[in-house]
Amino acid sequence: MIERDEVLHVARLARLALGEQEIEAMASELSAVLDHVAKIGELDLDGVAPTSHVVEVSGALRPDEPRPCLPREVALAQAPAVSDGGFLVPSPQA
Amino acid sequence: MSAGGLLELTAAAAADAIAAGELDAAELCAFYRQRAASDRAAGEDGLNCFTWVAGEAADERVPAAPLGVPLAVKDLFCTEGVPSQSGSRILEGYRPPYTATAVTRLRHAGASLLAKTNQDEFAMGSSTENSAFGPTLNPWDRARVPGGSSGGSAAAVAAGLAPWALGTDTGGSIRQPAALCGIVGLKPTYGSVSRYGMIAFASSLDQAGPLTRDVTDAALMLGHMVARDPCDATSLAHPEPIGLPSAEHLRGVRIGVPTELHGSSDSGAAIEPGVRRRFEEALATAEGLGASVQEVPLPHAPHALSAYYVLAPAEASSNLARFDGVRYGLRAKDASDLLDMYTRTRHDGFGAEVKRRIMLGTYALSAGYYDAYYGRAQKVRTKVAQDFAAAFGAVDLIATPTAPGVAFELGEKTADPWAMYLSDYFTVPMSLAGIPAISIPCGLSEQPDGPAGPGLPVGLQLAAPAFHENRLLDAAYALERALAFDPTAAHV
Hints:
By secondary structure, chain A is mainly alpha-helical. Chain A has helices spanning about 5-15, 20-35, 70-75, and strands at about 80-85, 85. Chain A has a two-stranded antiparallel sheet with strand order 1-2. Chain B has a domain at about 5-225: Amidase signature (AS) enzymes. In chain B, helix 5 (about 150-160) packs parallel to helix 6 and helix 9 (about 305-320) crosses helix 12.
């Protein structure tokens, strides 16, 4: 069972604010899913290599040559706030 | 050509008619634009398949291109200047400055952009109920879901609101909605189609593919999609061109039915009786076409769903870190500081299922749990892939029902995440192994709890070894002809 403190800790890691009701629901829903997921703990997997990727890709590097990128004004066009040719955000320390 | 005549044409038939000068591509585009726009204009009286529909002015086609058939595209594909939100509020108003490679390739082949289709938010779901745009309805029964996450694409093709559509599949998101809507859906071999410009869910599993009326259309679309793309380092050149299927029999084809996925009582996903009947009839049809059917063991397949629900949320929690209110989309107002802006933007912008998966993935990757969850799940993935490799030593194709049940009612599974996740029980193992799999309709099931109606579609899933799409398409084509499924009851 996931406890409330653990939900809050994981939410902090995930940069996610949760409302009071969400915290309670998350504790029970995560616990239920983890109960199912935990069944992989019963398997004997000693000596099995992990698979992070199913296809072998090698030599995928391209030559390191300068190429045009998105123009600055295009990259900034979707931003909620801009200033001086950059993304404007609230101060890290209020 | 009459409206009824246009509606009857598959994409391949329409492309042929255009090439032969018998059909004006502009007429076909206008026809489907009007149909798609009317679904959107109908609001709650429509199916809610679309998040955006092209206007008159948007009709620019590449001259002399082989296809003139308009294409519906899942919302999560970036399309330059056209809203692309992956079904999420957090990307409200986002119009990307570039277009996904899969879409670009199809446009260069002549398929103009008809519409963007509804989906579960960030492709997380099996019902298209987790969308900021509201749920899409199943055209066979509007009280039921179309499946997901590519539910808008599947419902649009089934209803005849689009000739064909592009979707994505991470754990079944093309195949399961195709099954629930009575159409064809193909998840290609991982890496055969570029992921560039797809708003990411789980990068080691995400793959684009076709949702179409028939197997020939799926082959035609896939043939224009596969290619190595310098913008996606995990993409690979397909070893052989995708051909149009032509097989008329299955003589010499060995079909394996996984022992663990076929009827064991503790399998975790109970197959509805109506689905089991259609599946067994489809196997008998395959035998009638000359195939041999045998059981094959996939001992770790029953653990695939558990491994998937560690791996996919873990990758999602990392991929979705980019949605922070800084560069695009939603930003929470009046934040006290930067951290407050991040956390409240994500609180306001993400829906319940996406939050659940971010939390699950962050938990599985956090200190103290990494080895028990993520590390073990990656090892289960190895075992699942090894099981398939061994099975394909004995058989050419593997068959399962695509989903354990037919389309379920709206709201039926939203309160129980694991019940929803079980919809993908038969599709997730192939995703973990990266192998291609197709769903074709194999008949109608009587409704599980209702009075005798027209019934609801059942999907047959066939899977092949990596890069054997041609084998898969040929077998699916021969079966499709023999099964003679009639999809027209879903047309609006």
